[in-house]
Design a protein that fits this description.
The complex is a heterotrimer. Chain A is mostly helical. Chain A has a two-stranded antiparallel ribbon. In chain A, a hairpin with a 2-residue loop joins strand 1 and strand 2. Chain B is built from nine helices and ten strands. In chain B, the strands form two sheets. Chain B has a six-stranded mixed β-sheet, with helices on both faces. In chain B, strands 2-1-4-5 form a four-stranded antiparallel β-sheet, with helices on one face. Helix content of chain B is about 35%, strand content about 25%. Chain C is of the alpha/beta class. In chain C, strand 9, helix 7 and strand 10 form a beta-alpha-beta unit. The longest helix of chain C is centred in the middle third of the chain and has 23 residues. Chain C is globular, with a radius of gyration of 20 Å. Classes of the chains: A mainly alpha, B alpha/beta, C alpha/beta. Chains in contact: A-B, A-C.
């Protein structure tokens, strides 16, 4: 008794600015938009080569918006802004957004706070696909995507399709059995990946860098393919926020609340997998974003998917842009390392600060 | 507060899973605004009957009509707006506040594009007030007692706005005080015009709070009527296979 | 005659150069078979391997280099160039900022293939250099010479190197012994050994040794059991630069029975000139020949700086 009383009291004391935010999710949305805008500006403005802010703005203004500005900058600077930084920042935005939205979806569907976009074997599938792409001595380019990206995309989707079929996802399969099947299939694919890495010789480095995730290969072509998949997939997921909310209470209650559980779950799994596969094909396996961003947002606004989805999208996008900027200024460290190094402490801090009753 | 309750007609209902017959030949008519309690031993088919009624299980034979319309012809969303089910036990993957849980009751009314409407917010406020859990509104559900949680789930069902409220053992795990709170709440709901259908194991409480009991045994409807008629000492002995003296209200008879 | 002369006689150099006499614009075929067009004599060259940097300097084009990798340590002037590549790959912003008119990349995944593709997308002429064996090094020097407009300098350099190869070859040929030589590139976690036909295996042959290799051109490592069976008579510590000395080798379980360890024929060399496919290859060969045959006299080449002082063989 006394311990719960104490916990309640402490929880009550902790509510403050947090409570104010929680009551006004729109304010949080505005903060998210501002943070995203700041991230985009910083992402385009900063890098290992210095380009003055005025030139940066003028280049983007002239090239994208057709501003009538005189060209006072060098070709090299224009190339850096337009061909390197802009597509890279936008790819980070799209990947961060996609992984966060997929993370919310997987956590909600599987009713498991430890779920992330990679939980159902997508990561191992994508990694194995990419490794095979690295090892096949062919230069295939389709829609501007290299073999590695294409096979990563195919690998991720194949893995989840296998998991869904093996677990009998269309029938009476429980989410626990899907999760466990995901783990088993993932382990098998990971063994295949280890074998591929063992056999890869001098290509090992390329596979390894794919596993750590990186945005250094971002260009307009892959963005042009990945952006629509992530954008449309995320939008369709957001329109099904109702179903994700219903599933919070379990299958039976969701049915009683009018959610066609089997159908909605299949659709949401497919959409989230598609978004994950696209993100993974664009940037490799960037961990942590899809796990932590949804939790941070839930800590701030509660578990209502209608709020958590768009806010996670916003903050996930800016988080990955900032993390990638960190990767760039530290001499191209893999961005997955940065997301973990920044993300983990922030998460733990929020967890301690805001919610005594949060159970994992 | 006056609402129109749901009228339910169940005729010749049968349900089998493979070879085992779970329900057979059930005829049951519930008037709008009636408060009815299903009783019977474990495995009698009470929960299965509720599952058929709420569309979770497809009957193998017979028909269920809601206000005269066959249940099979009603789409899931419409059923959800008509029948509110109080979940037995819910374990939440994430921490949630009371108000957020109650708001989930409005899902069947939500527009996928615009989300919660002003009407939804009013319904949530009204349900919270009606169940009397205003003071719990911003609390984390995981910090509540079992009894308080049960009230929150009832509030969710009330917010859902069904004209029939279904409860499967709503008082299990509750102390006497909270049992009485929940059951008193149900009488208030029928007083306002809603139909209430509950499953209870506690026969004295059922007899006290419900004017009509339906006794099921081995998938069949054994008795239907006022508590005094249904719970005869003979039936207690036949159906439950216990000495009636173990049931307090029969201890004297 | 010397193995060196036999190998070097039909040198297929000048392979990558088109027949045209007018120097630029010029189309060259790089070591990956890609045809690269260079519009004018390159004035801003980025080198993406230490060997390419050494070759460019040796051809007198050091002042036209603008970018290098983190590992370019020779000649000393290379340190003044802007570093644009590290173990994490090519820093594309720096490459673009340097506005190169030629990029000399390295093949066999030393320069990440994605980065090579990216630089080409951005419109830079990228010539990929990769020498799988010793004759290919000579061809690469000629290829770089063509690409940067220094054919005559390249011809002179390869001619000088050919003479030096021949000189060492003759000296080695005068010695009858062809000891079994093992040249480990490292021993953790596996024993890294030269593949048959690799630059290092070629170099050992040219230096008068019989190289112990991995038997498979695609394998990098040799199992300890096979190494014990192969029983090296001389062990050349290519990893001496990284702190491995004869005493360490003798202490390894299973190595104490090898002939080289028993007779004390475990010697250190500076591996950079031996393994870097550039203009110092002949100097590396001289060091290697002296390490395999300690009595060999090669007065034309400067003496080697001692490695592993006090731990000698």
């Amino acid at each position: 008794m006394t311990t719960t009383d104490l916990a309640r009291e402490r929880a009550a004391v902790r509510q403050g600015t947090f409570e104010a935010l929680r009551r006004r999710p729109v304010v949080l949305g505005l903060i998210g938009l501002l943070a995203l805008a700041a991230a985009v500006v910083a992402g385009i403005g900063l890098g290992s080569v210095f380009i003055s802010p005025a030139d940066t703005v003028a280049i983007v203004g002239r090239e994208l918006l057709g501003w009538p500005v005189a060209e006072t900058w060098s070709r090299a600077h224009e190339t850096i802004v337009m061909e390197l930084r802009l597509p890279r920042v936008l790819t980070a935005l799209v990947v961060g957004l996609g992984l966060s939205v997929a993370g919310v979806t997987f956590q909600g569907l599987l009713r498991n706070p430890l779920a992330d976009p990679y939980v159902l074997g997508t990561a191992s599938g994508a990694a194995l696909g990419a490794a095979i792409g690295v090892l096949i001595p062919l230069q295939i380019v389709w829609l501007g995507l290299g073999l590695v990206n294409i096979l990563a995309f195919v690998g991720a989707l194949t893995a989840i399709a296998i998991v869904y079929r093996v677990a009998g996802g269309g029938g009476r399969a429980t989410m626990t059995s899907i999760l466990l099947t995901g783990y088993a299939v993932g382990s098998m694919l990971a063994a295949g990946l280890s074998l591929a890495m063992y056999l890869s010789g001098s290509q090992l480095r390329q596979i390894f860098f794919y596993l750590l995730g990186s945005l250094s290969g971002a260009d307009w072509q892959s963005l042009a393919v990945g952006l629509p998949v992530v954008a449309i997939g995320s939008l369709l997921i957001m329109l099904r926020a109702r179903s994700i909310n219903g599933l919070l209470l379990g299958d039976d209650t969701a049915l009683h609340l009018g959610v066609d559980v089997r159908r909605e779950r299949a659709i949401l799994l497919a959409l989230a997998s598609l978004v994950t596969a696209a993100a993974v094909a664009m940037a490799g396996l960037i961990g942590f974003v899809g796990l932590v961003v949804p939790h941070v947002i839930r800590l701030l606004v509660g578990p209502n998917a209608r709020l958590v989805l768009p806010l996670s999208a916003l903050f996930g996008a800016s988080f990955l842009i900032w993390a990638d900027l960190g990767a760039r200024v530290t001499g191209e460290l893999p961005v997955g390392i940065i997301t973990a190094v920044i993300g983990a402490p922030v998460f733990v801090l929020l967890l301690r600060r805001y919610r005594a009753g949060y159970q994992l | 507060m006056s609402e129109r309750g749901l009228r339910i007609d169940i005729e010749g209902l049968g349900l089998r899973y493979g070879r085992s017959e779970v329900l057979s030949d059930i005829d049951l008519h519930i008037e709008a605004g009636e408060r009815l309690c299903l009783v019977g031993p474990n495995g009698a088919g009470k929960s299965s009957l509720l599952r058929c009624l709420t569309g979770l299980a497809q009957p193998t034979s017979g028909v269920i009509r809601l206000d005269g319309q066959p249940l099979v012809e009603i789409e899931r969303g419409a059923i959800a707006r008509t029948i509110s089910v109080v979940p037995g036990q819910v374990d939440l993957p994430f921490s949630m506040r009371v108000e957020e849980v109650v708001r989930l009751g409005r899902l069947p009314h939500e527009n996928p594009f615009t989300g919660t409407s002003e009407e939804d917010r009013r319904a949530v406020d009204a349900a919270i007030a009606r169940v009397g859990i205003d003071r719990l509104r911003d609390r984390d559900v995981q910090q509540l007692s079992m009894g308080e949680r049960q009230l929150v789930l009832v509030a969710m069902a009330v917010a859902q706005g069904g004209r029939l409220i279904v409860l499967d053992e709503p008082t299990v795990h509750l102390d006497l005080r909270h049992q009485v709170d929940v059951l008193t709440l149900l009488t208030r709901l029928t007083d306002a015009g809603l139909t209430v259908l509950a499953v209870l194991h506690d026969l004295p409480l059922a007899a006290h709070f419900f004017g009509r009991l339906v006794l099921l045994d081995e998938g069949r409807l054994v008795a239907d009527g006022a508590p005094g008629e249904v719970l005869s000492a003979e039936r207690i002995r036949d159906v439950y296979r216990v000495d009636p003296r173990f049931v307090p209200s029969f201890a004297s008879s | 005659m010397a193995a060196a002369a036999i190998m070097l006689a039909p040198l297929p150099w000048a392979t990558g150069v088109s027949a045209s006499d007018a120097l630029f614009p010029l189309a060259v075929t790089d070591d990956e078979g890609t045809e690269v067009t260079i519009d004018a004599e390159p004035q801003r060259i980025i080198s993406l391997s230490p060997a390419n940097t050494e070759i460019a300097f040796a051809l007198g084009a050091g002042d036209r280099l603008v970018g290098r990798t983190d590992w370019d340590d020779y000649p000393a002037e290379a340190a003044e160039l802007t570093p644009v590549a590290s173990f994490t790959g090519v820093n594309m912003e720096q490459v673009v900022a340097l506005e190169p008119d030629l990029v000399l990349a390295a093949g066999n995944f030393f320069t990440p293939p994605d980065d090579i593709e990216r630089m080409r997308e951005l419109g830079y002429p990228v010539v990929v250099i990769y020498a799988p064996d010793v004759p290919a090094v000579m061809a690469d020097i000629e290829l770089i010479g063509s690409a940067i407009g220094a054919r005559e300098e390249a011809a002179a350099l390869t001619a000088k190197m050919a003479t030096e190869f021949d000189a060492i070859g003759e000296a080695v040929a005068a010695i009858d012994a062809r000891p079994r030589v093992f040249y480990p590139g490292g021993s953790e976690p596996e024993i890294f050994a030269p593949a048959p036909g690799s630059v290092v295996a070629d170099m050992v042959t040219l230096a008068g040794g019989d190289p112990i290799t991995t038997a498979d051109a695609a394998a990098w490592a040799i199992p300890l059991e096979e190494l014990i069976v192969a029983d090296p008579e001389v062990i050349i510590l290519g990893d001496a630069n990284y702190g491995i000395c004869p005493a360490d080798v003798a202490a390894r379980p299973g190595w104490e029975e090898m002939t080289a360890v028993v007779t004390g024929d475990v010697r250190a060399v500076d591996d950079v000139p031996v393994t870097r496919p550039g203009p110092r290859l002949t100097q590396g060969l001289a060091s290697l020949a002296r390490a395999i045959h300690p009595d060999l006299e090669l007065p034309a080449f400067p003496p080697d700086a001692p490695l592993c002082e006090g731990a000698g063989a």
